[in-house]
Amino acid sequence: MRKIKASASYEELDRENDSEIVKTLSPAEAQVVREKNPLLSPWVVLAGQAGAGLVVSLAAWLLTADISVGWSALYGSMAIVVPGALFARGLMSKVSSINPAAAVTGFFLWEMVKIGLVLAMLFAAPKLISDLSWSAMLVGLVVTMKVVWLILWFEAKARRKSCKLNVKLNVISQSSSNKEI
């Protein structure tokens, strides 16, 4: 840890910090960073949410031996997955990537559409599901919303494992090429 002079001005400290922290990447370096840290597709998250919703609905049906409880839990999870899919599709459209202002506007627009669709699906639930179990529907809804953190954790764990595997493969290939020489 370095010592800071008591008489140092803010400008001097800023210049010191800027030179240490900021490094402009070349296009090749930026490409390497992008390849090492690929973006997580929203479709992977939505697939995980849909899978969790199916598991919850099957568990609810098997634990209660009542099919309407299972349908209620499934409907609750679909009240999250269907609007989320619409939101992801809207954000990935070409219109949303034209410029930053269009992206921000698109984000808020599709978020409002998503919230409206969730509310509409919840209000329509009693008419669509006979013998609706509100508690099972809410369990399906909450589990589907909260499973995102578990999906992100598994994805990060899989990426760490693949990075370690790549490092091992590089070490093995380097050691075999050194033996040939």
Give the helix/strand layout.
Layout: H1 10-21, H2 27-36, H3 42-64, H4 67-91, H5 100-128, H6 134-180
Helix pairs in contact: 3-4, 3-6, 4-5, 4-6
Word description of this protein:
By secondary structure, the chain is mostly helical. It has a domain at 43-155. Helix content is 81%, strand content 0%. It has 6 helices and no strands. The chain has helices at 10-21, 27-36, 42-64, 67-91, 100-128, 134-180. Helix 3 (42-64) packs antiparallel against helix 4, helix 3 crosses helix 6 (134-180) and helix 4 packs antiparallel against helix 5 (100-128). The longest helix is centred in the last third of the chain and has 47 residues, at 134-180. The radius of gyration is 25 Å and the shape is elongated. It starts with 9 loop residues before the first helix and ends with a helix.
Mean pLDDT: 82
Regions with little confidence, pLDDT below 50 for 5+ residues: none
Largest sheet: none
Q: Distance N terminus to C terminus?
A: 44 Å
Fraction in helix? over 70%
> How many individual β-strands?
0
User: How would you sum up the global shape?
Assistant: elongated
Strand content: under 5%
Number of helices: 6
N-to-C series of helices and strands: HHHHHH
> Pairing-aware structural class of the strands and helices?
mainly alpha
Write down the Rg.
25 Å
